[in-house]
Amino acid sequence: AQTVTQSQPEMSVQEAETVTLSCTYDTSESDYYLFWYKQPPSRQMILVIRQEAYKQQNATENRFSVNFQKAAKSFSLKISDSQLGDAAMYFCAYRSPYSGGGADGLTFGKGTHLIIQP
Amino acid sequence: GAVVSQHPSRVICKSGTSVKIECRSLDFQATTMFWYRQFPKQSLMLMATSNEGSKATYEQGVEKDKFLINHASLTLSTLTVTSAHPEDSSFYICSATVLGETQYFGPGTRLLVL
After folding, report:
1. Residue A54 backbone phi and psi in degrees, to 5
2. Residue B39, CB half-sphere, CA atoms under 13 Å: how many?
3. 3-class DSSP state of A57
4. Residue B68 belongs to what H/E stretch?
5. How many helices (H) does chain B have, and how many strands (E)?
6. What integer pLDDT is reported at residue A57 of this predicted model?
7. What local confidence, expressed as pLDDT, does residue A100 receive?
8. What is the CA B71 to chain-centroid distance, rounded?
9. What's the burial of B20, exposed, middle or buried (CB within 10 Å: 0-12/13-18/19+)?
10. Which pLDDT score, from 0 to 100, does residue B18 have?
């Protein structure tokens, strides 16, 4: 079974600064997908970024980028120019590849509560 | 695009009663829908995987007779919590996907069992 570990229960950053959220995972699969989801107080899960394990290039979405280290099984999220609206719980998630027999659910880490200081 | 709705958003029920939660993909046909549970200040835990027209697959430790899942069409899955008890109080979230690609989440349903 896969496991996802987020070792930072809470992080705080000044507005406009950069912050990095850590995530490590354990798997015996060679192909898989990794995600970062944001859950604001409304509790709606919002996809921030995704990474396919077979791609060496790190995914980027505007101010959000990842540092994917496959050998180290590490998948950190960097948020640049932090904004007040970035305040939320951030969950790292793992998913096995689609096998044709059906899609797999996501395995989530415990989350990191990101606080943005004005 | 890729909007998933849930109904109701919040429900309060008496212990021993059953509650049905609906999950709909509004603008796409979902080959698979998932049900997650989230306790306060905790992460999401996968409860079951639901493919249209077939029986749901439950995660270890999830009672299939208590959490009945029906996936009658490519746009609708329902979760029924039978004989609900206070310990079933939680936040239930569904997600939907097409052929295993990105999962799109519903807004969640807060269940409180008195």
Report:
1. -80, -10
2. 7
3. coil
4. strand B67-73
5. 0, 11
6. 94
7. 60
8. 10
9. middle
10. 97
Is there a contact between B7 and B19 (Cβ–Cβ < 8 Å)?
no
Task: Report the half-sphere exposure of B109 (CA within 13 A, side-chain side).
Answer: 27
In whole angstroms, what is the distance from residue B72 CA to residue B52 CA? 6
Smallest Cα distance from A109 to chain B, Å: 7
Helices and strands (DSSP H and E) totals, chain A: 0, 12
Pairwise CA distance, residues B95 & B81, whole Å? 17
- First-to-last alpha carbon distance for chain B, in angstroms, is 37
SS3 A96: coil
* Helix locations, A1-118, DSSP H: none
The amino acid occupying position B90 is S
Residues from B contacting A (CB-CB < 8 Å) are 31-32, 34, 36, 38, 42-46, 49, 51, 57, 59, 91, 93, 95, 97, 99-105, 107-108
A7-53 pLDDT, tens digit per residue, is: 999 999 999 999 999 999 999 988 999 999 999 999 999 999 999 99
To probe the interface with A, which of B103, B104, B109, B110 has the most A CB atoms within 10 Å?
B103
Neighboring chain A residues of B57 at a CB cutoff of 8 Å:
102
Within chain B, which residues score under 50 in pLDDT?
A: none
